[in-house]
Recover the amino acids of this structure.
């Protein structure tokens, strides 16, 4: 069936490259001829605040820049506390892609607030939606710091899940990131497709 | 208005970029202003994409607006850029320009905070429309942001008035497509039709006292601003930017800005009056909609200004009684409208107890060194509007007083004279705040013989909004080394008795300097130097780590407020204090806080 469009929440903390992720993805959907609205919501403070991007593509003009709770098709999150913040917005058949990376909230570090009593990863897995978990610790290697590249890893992961043309995506990466980062980003992208491929095969 | 009529290109732009494009198409010659989230990027885009336009970051918003007013009087279209709290600073200048003769169009692009995750100063720029009787335009997406920008200049010239283009965080940070003419050639026109332009005091004195006179010396001072605004209100019933979409007779909504799209999505059947010009109002259109529907709602972000103005026209409309305003609601979302106006809408509730993220300073920020020393020695201090204000939040508690940009010096002076100088209440201010208005506080402190201590944080830019240039920066739009202002030299010239300059990372030196200044018998200034870690991408040192065998988990290092230090639950449920190796810059501040020598590098 023809894809008429999707509503995606991209979430994480400042410095994780969420804006690059949505920028690359928007170019892909533009090329396919979709209408788009992408709204970035940022917190106060320079680093480590929550960041969320409401990413909507459709074959009809997109109206609201914000996705209504209950209308989210995909949550793609680079930080698991942020994943939990957005789970309730998913459609029944919505899908979660989440890194298990966690940047402890200041309020928890300073004991102004209690952390959730349970494992966040377990809470995400237990949700009624289909979930795909990426644990950066498992995929870490001395020559590849996955934590710094999670955005592009997730892009590869998502593209593999959707069955998109990797050639096209890699071309967009090439055109969009500064020369000296192109190779690193392509490695990260491919890593993402591999992780997704292995996961999808095992299901 | 059909500026998008003959487009040859389509591009994804956020609202800020679209406004800059509009400025270019309007033939703006001069753009001046002061950074302020969310509208800072309007200037950045204008400068980078359209070098034809003269750009400057002025010392503060008032100066910026005055520059634009001067350029407008010279006959050229001029733009002032700021956020609403900045317009409070510039309000006197706007009051002076309101109602006066306008040669080149004068437009203020002003950003409201509506739409951020955390915190909203909850200002609404439209109050200035009501107070000064000037038009306010509000776009709903990027295309309109561009188009209304051009229209704003036309209105400014046609009705001889400054015009405000209100943008919100949502408009600024939402990317959508913009159709435009790629081959458009930039044109600047000089429109000098008024030989004088005076504030209302001068003008009204002459107009009311010399009514009926035809002497050109008198009539050249006349500007019938109330008639102009009445004419605009009348004509606005026919403006394309105000659009009446008559549908269902049950529900009618008057709306503007991004809420228009929330309404269209949630209530596709409703009849809608979408306003592009939110002040003055198109009375005929409003009454036509009111006649057409059973229930009439007003859906507007910010304060209840449309609502009040509509009610003033004698039209009854439902607004804040159904949609309570701040602090009950930060902003409209489609969800809020659905909950109230769609029967049996499903309700989704977020997971409870997901911890909140308080704002944090960047790892390695010089402000953290100052906060740490103030806290360590229990020195009471006022913060300013600067990255350092993060020290006010409850996880740090380094400051006890904080108000507006540039205020801390005067705040501390006031405190100290009230307490007969028995305590030394210290002022901390950033370089941006210092040049903006803080310098006035310092001059005031000197000639009124105060003994207060001021810490000026010189990080070579206005860091909080992303690193724009200030008077003491070594870069910037119009930068020349010989014109750079030096903070220490200026302090000396003003008459500060005791001035010392220290490197923020030299912890012992900095500590000594602050303690000396605080105990000095005279007024004193400590200038703390360190370029902003984030803006200038300072090279990282070897990251620190915590030796878990030595760590007693006293959490003193966490109180430093560095983003890199985290408390983590280990597999077995025990807690560890760790340093995030990807974030740590190796500045070594945390090791000054640890009494157990557990932090190593
Ligand atoms: S200050 Fe030292 S002992 Fe205390 S938690 Fe931090 S590293 Fe551990
Ligand atoms: S050395 Fe300590 S204070 Fe400095 S960046 Fe690293 S963790 Fe933060």
């Amino acid at each position: 069936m023809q894809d008429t469009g999707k509503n995606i929440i991209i979430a994480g903390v400042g410095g994780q490259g969420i804006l690059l992720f949505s920028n690359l993805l928007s170019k892909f959907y533009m090329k396919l001829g979709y209408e788009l609205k992408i709204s970035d919501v940022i917190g106060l403070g320079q680093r480590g605040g929550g960041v969320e991007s409401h990413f909507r593509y459709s074959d009809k003009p997109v109206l609201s820049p914000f996705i209504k709770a209950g209308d989210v098709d995909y949550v793609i999150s680079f930080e698991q506390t942020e994943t939990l913040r957005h789970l309730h917005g998913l459609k029944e058949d919505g899908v979660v892609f989440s890194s298990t990376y966690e940047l402890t909230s200041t309020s928890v570090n300073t004991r102004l607030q209690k952390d959730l009593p349970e494992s966040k990863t377990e809470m995400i897995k237990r949700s009624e939606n289909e979930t795909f978990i990426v644990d950066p610790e498992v995929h870490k290697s001395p020559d590849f710091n996955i934590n710094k590249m999670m955005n592009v890893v997730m892009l590869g992961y998502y593209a593999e899940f959707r069955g998109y043309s990797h050639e096209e995506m890699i071309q967009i990466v090439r055109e969009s990131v500064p020369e000296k980062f192109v190779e690193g980003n392509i490695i990260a992208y491919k890593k993402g497709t591999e992780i997704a491929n292995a996961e999808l095969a095992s299901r | 208005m059909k500026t998008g009529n003959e487009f040859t290109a389509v591009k994804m732009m956020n609202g800020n970029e679209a406004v800059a494009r509009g400025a270019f198409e309007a033939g703006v010659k001069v753009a001046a202003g002061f950074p302020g989230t969310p509208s800072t990027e309007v200037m950045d885009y204008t400068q980078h994409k359209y070098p034809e336009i003269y750009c400057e970051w002025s010392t503060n918003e008032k100066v910026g607006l005055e520059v634009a007013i001067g350029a407008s009087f010279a006959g050229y279209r001029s733009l002032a850029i700021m956020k609403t709290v900045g317009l409070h600073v510039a309000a006197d200048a706007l009051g002076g320009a309101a109602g006066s003769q306008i040669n080149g169009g004068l437009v203020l692009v002003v950003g409201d905070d509506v739409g951020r995750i955390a915190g909203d100063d909850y200002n609404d720029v439209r109050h200035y429309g009501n107070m000064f009787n000037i038009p306010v335009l509000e776009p709903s997406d990027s295309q309109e942001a561009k188009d209304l920008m051009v229209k704003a200049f036309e209105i400014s010239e046609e009705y001889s008035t400054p015009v405000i283009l209100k943008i919100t965080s949502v408009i600024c940070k939402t990317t959508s497509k913009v159709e435009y003419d790629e081959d458009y050639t930039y044109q600047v026109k000089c429109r000098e039709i008024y030989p004088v332009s005076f504030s209302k005091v001068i003008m009204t004195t002459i107009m009311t006292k010399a009514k009926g006179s035809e002497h050109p010396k008198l009539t050249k001072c006349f500007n019938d601003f109330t008639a102009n605004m009445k004419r605009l209100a009348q004509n606005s019933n026919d403006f394309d930017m105000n659009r009446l979409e008559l549908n269902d007779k049950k529900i009618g909504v008057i709306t503007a800005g991004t809420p228009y799209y929330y309404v269209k999505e949630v209530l596709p059947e409703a009849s809608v009056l979408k306003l592009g010009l939110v002040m003055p109002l198109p009375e005929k259109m409003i009454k036509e909609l009111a006649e057409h529907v059973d229930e009439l709602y007003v859906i507007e972000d910010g304060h209840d200004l449309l609502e009040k103005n509509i009610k003033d026209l004698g039209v009854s409309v439902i607004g804040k009684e159904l949609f309570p305003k701040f602090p009950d609601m930060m902003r409209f979302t489609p969800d809020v409208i659905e909950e109230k106006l769609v029967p049996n809408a499903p309700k989704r509730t977020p997971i409870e107890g997901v911890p909140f993220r308080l704002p944090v300073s960047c790892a390695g920020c010089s402000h953290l060194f100052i906060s740490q020393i103030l806290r360590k020695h229990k020195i009471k201090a006022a913060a300013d509007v600067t990255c350092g204000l993060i020290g006010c939040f409850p996880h740090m508690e380094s400051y006890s007083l904080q108000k507006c940009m540039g205020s801390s010096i005067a705040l501390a002076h006031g405190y100290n004279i009230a307490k007969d100088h028995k305590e030394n209440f210290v002022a901390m201010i950033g370089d941006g705040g210092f040049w903006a208005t803080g310098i006035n506080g310092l001059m005031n402190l000197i000639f009124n013989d105060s003994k207060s201590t001021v810490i000026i944080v010189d990080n070579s830019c206005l860091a909080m909004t992303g690193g724009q240039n200030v008077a003491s920066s070594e870069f910037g739009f119009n930068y020349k080394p010989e014109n750079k202002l030096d903070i220490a030299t200026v302090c000396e010239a003003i008459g500060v008795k005791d001035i010392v300059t220290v490197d923020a990372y030299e912890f012992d030196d900095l500590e000594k300097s602050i303690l000396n200044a605080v105990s000095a018998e005279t007024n004193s200034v400590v200038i703390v130097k360190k370029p902003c870690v984030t803006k200038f991408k300072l090279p990282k040192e070897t990251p620190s780590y915590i030796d878990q065998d030595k760590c007693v988990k006293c959490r003193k290092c966490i109180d430093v407020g560095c983003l890199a230090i985290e408390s983590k639950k280990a597999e077995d449920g025990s807690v560890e204090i760790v340093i995030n190796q990807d974030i740590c810059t190796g500045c070594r501040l945390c090791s000054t806080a640890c009494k157990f020598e557990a932090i190593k590098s």
Notes: Chain B touches chain A through 60 residues (CB under 8 Å). Chain B has a mean pLDDT of 94. The CA atoms of residues 34 and 61 of chain B lie 5 Å apart.
